[in-house]
Each structure stands twice: as C-alpha cells, then as structure tokens.
Amino acid sequence: MLGSKAFEPNRDIDSPNRNIAPITSEINDSEKLLVGGCQLSELAKKYGTPLYVFDELSLRTACKTYISSLKKHYPGDYLPLYASKANSSLAICAIIASEGFGLDAVSEGELLTALKGGVKGENIVFHGNNKSRDELFFAYQNNVTIVLDNNHDIELLKNIASEGKPAKLMLRFTPGIECHTHEYIRTGHLDSKFGFDPDQVESVLQELKMYKWANLTGLHAHIGSQIFEVQPHVDLAGVMADTLKLARKIGHPIADLNLGGGLGIKYVQEDNPPSIDKWVEVISKAVVIACSERNLDLPRLMCEPGRSLVANSCLTIYKIGAKKIVPGIRTYLSVDGGMSDNPRPITYQSLYSSCLVDKPLDSNCEKVTIAGKHCESGDILLKDFSLPSCESGDFLAVFGTGAYNYSMSSNYNRIPRPATVIVGDGCVDLIQRRELPEDLLQLDVLPDRFITNN
Ligand SMILES: Cc1ncc(COP(=O)(O)O)c(C=O)c1O
Predict the structure, then answer these.
(1) Whose CA is nearest to atom 16 of ligand 1?
(2) Average pLDDT for residues 326-342, to the nearest whole number?
(3) Which atom of ligand 1 is nearest to the CA of 86?
(4) pLDDT, average across residues 379-408
(5) Can you give the pLDDT at residue 4?
(6) For 166-213, how does the pLDDT look when each residue is reduced to its tens digit (9 = 90+)?
C-alpha cells in the first residue's frame, strides 16, 4: 500500500494503468506532493475539499498508448471508444475526442455530454439493457450506433427508424466467458442481464435481415471489468469471429467487431495489470488469428476501455477531521467525503492507496482506518492503512479515483458533490464546479399546502 515508503516513483509512464499515482506525480524540495506541476495542498486550499484532481498528461498518455498500440499491432482499421460510464464530463469527452477516440454511452445524459463535448454521433455507440423510446430516438436522430441488447430494443426501434434513414446497429450477445473479477462487474457469463443469449443470436440475425430500417454493421461483447488476465479476451475473439462468420453468411455487412473494455488498473501495490500495449497486442493478434482461421476479412476493431483511461489519471484530496481511538482495536481518522464521492469501497470492497500530500515520504507510520463522514458504519475508504502521524486539517490524497467515482457519486446525506480540476504544466482548470447545498434544493418542490406560517 502507499503509505510512508508510499510514494514510489512511477514505473511505466506509457501505461498509466500500471501506476498507482498519476504519471506526473513528483515530490518537490520541500517534500510536498505535486501533480501536473501543481502542489496538491495549494489546490486543496484554493478549491476546497474533497477535490477530484485530474492529470491531463496521464489521460492523454493512456489515450495515445491505446491508439499507437492499435496502429502497431492491428493490421486492419480500428476505433477505440471511451466507456464514458467511467467518468462523463464535457472536458473529458473533449479530451478523448481530440485524441481520436470515439465513445460508448449508456443514457441520454451520457450521449448529450459526449455530443456537447465534441464527440461525433457516428463515433458513438449507445448501450443499455433497458433503453427508453426517448433515448433510442435521441440516439437515432444523432446518427449514433445503437447496440441491440434485447428484443425490447428491436420492438421500440421498429417505430422509430425508417427505411429512408436506417438505424445503424450493433448486436450485443453474452459470449459465455468467465473471468476473475467481482461478480457485480462480470458481464460475459451466461447468467447476465446484458445482451442476447448465444442461443438467440442466429434467429435475431435472421429476423433483422427482414427489416429494411435495420442496418446491422457490428457485433459486441464485453466480459467484465478490472480484469488482469488476458486469456478471456483471446477466447472472446474466437467466439466473436464465429458469430461474425454467421452474421456475414446471413447477409449482414458486419464491419465492426467490438470486444468491450475491462483492462484492469493498479489500485494497490499488489495489483499487476497488463500494460495497455500488451492488452491491445493480445486482442489484436487474437482477432487476426481467429479471422484468418475462418477465412474472414478483418473487421474494424473496436474496444471500449473506461477504467484504464481515467482511473489513475485522477486522485481525490480530502481534509482529515476527527480522530477516534478504540484502544487495542483501531484508530479512525474521518475525512470530509466518503461513500458519496467514492462508493466503490462500500459497493465492491475495493482497495485504494493513499498518502498525506504534504508528508508523502514520512516513514514514521501508524495504522489507521480512513472513515467517510456518512451515516453508515460501512463508509470506510481505507481499512488498517499505514499513514504518518497526522493532525486534523492535514490533506490526504486517495489515488486511482478517476473511474466510477464521480460517475457513481450520490448526494447521500445531502452531501454536495466535490469539484473537479484538471492540471498540467503547472496550470489548473476547473472542469466541474462544487455542488452547493442550495443546488440540492433546486429540484425539490414544496407544495403550498405544506407551508406553515409558524
Ligand atoms: C459494455 C461495456 N463496455 C465497456 C466497459 C468499460 O469497462 P472498463 O471500465 O473496465 O474498461 C463497461 C464497464 O463495465 C461495459 O459495461
């Protein structure tokens, strides 16, 4: 864990997913932690805490590595898509679009953010196991590729798409591949709510052939998230190539093969995910081999990384407040955020690394448990963690919080969401302002009859 010896220099700067801290992290002469050339304690004082801090270079490096690796390892056409469920904001969408990425969205909110952030509709795919008619209509109007997840999607689209402007479609199916990750983020096994069952695929392909409004151009499968093994993706390529062969035989002009996301990242020292380059090499070779064995022209290769692009590009700064010592058992340090800005520990028992931003190298450590401020005993961010002695008012950085933190955040206990800043070359920009308690009241309606005069 990152604690005292904690702050170790990053090792694999081309693959931010293999470094706990953002790749620009450094310690200055006064032994304070900087990211993107900005001193974290100064950011905390200026913008308040909790504060999400994004490192622009880490994010751009991860994007560039995906693209250069696809270019190096895949002889056909390719389009990587950012799984925006990991973290959706205008600025992040603008950055990934500028790096040549398309995007995967799962709601009208994510679609709107991507489009306003500058991602073109034709580079967006729209997922979801229960899309509404309005969402489908919005996607169709904006030339977004719609991922058919089930028959409900087909029934709704029949009344939306016209022969004049067919809907561009991708078919998602469950490939029946198991992988070792938390059961809530495993999606490729047969008992999953996502995608058509493999037994249904042939009849759905036949059915779609009858509809002039349906332009099926792609196949999709996603096996899960935070995966360290590469073999499941090799197996996936084979399963998808079989389906590609079938779909083309039935007469669908399938150009795109989308193998989903899932590459894991390093949250704690024990984590050893493959590099982005290795992952891309494995999936590229697997698709090339699977297609050549089946005599298939190479499809355009798509993948949908989320976590491995954004997680390690970001950290969260908290301010330490109350300290409670339970003699002989545990020392609790409470911070000014918790499960509302990072629900992963309470949801998936996820582990994180952390250090004091102004004492990153102090080796005089004690074991502490970092508690959030919400009214849940389970609101614990880090358990039995080694940290230098600290006082109320010290700032703590929790690393790897760029994915599934802000996007899964809530207002539990009516706690406003933190602000997000992006740093680079010593400059800082606000990309999401802090919510205020008054913002939370904006959506409330108080009927007149409930207003009392006293
Ligand atoms: C369909 C789909 N694509 C891509 C992703 C992104 O996965 P990850 O963030 O692990 O790369 C997910 C997340 O679970 C997903 O459900």
Answers:
(1) 222
(2) 97
(3) 9
(4) 96
(5) 40
(6) 999 999 999 988 766 666 555 666 788 999 999 999 999 999 999 999
* 36 vs 229: CA distance, rounded Å: 31
**Which residues lie across from 366 on neighbouring strands?**
387
- Ligand 1 centroid to residue 377 C-alpha, Å: 30
**Would you please indicate which residues are annotated as catalytic (active-site) residues?**
375
CA 268 to ligand 1 center in whole angstroms: 21
The 10s digit of each residue's pLDDT in 412-449 is 999 999 999 999 999 999 999 999 999 999 999 999 99
What integer pLDDT is reported at residue 7 of this predicted model?
Answer: 63
Q: Which residues pair with 256 in a beta bridge?
A: 218, 300
Q: Is the CB of 233 under 6 A from ligand 1?
A: no
Q: Residue 57 has what pLDDT?
A: 97
Domains of the chain: 16-55+313-441 (2.40.37.10), 127-304 (3.20.20.10)
CA of 37 to the centre of ligand 1 (A): 31
Residue-level pLDDT at 3: 40
Among 63, 104, 226, 228, name the best residue to mutate to test ligand 1's pocket (greatest count of ligand atoms within 8 A of Cβ): 104
Q: What are phi and psi of 314, to 5 degrees?
A: -135, 150
CA-nearest residue, atom 4 of ligand 1: 261
Mean pLDDT across 295-322 = 98
- The response to whether residue 273 sits with its C-beta less than 6 Å from ligand 1 reads no
Q: Is the model's pTM score more than 0.90? A: yes
Q: Is 262 in the pocket of ligand 1 (CB under 6 A)?
A: yes
101: CA distance to ligand 1 center in Å?
15
> Are the CB atoms for 87 and 106 separated by under 8 Å?
no
Atom 12 of ligand 1: nearest residue by CA position = 261
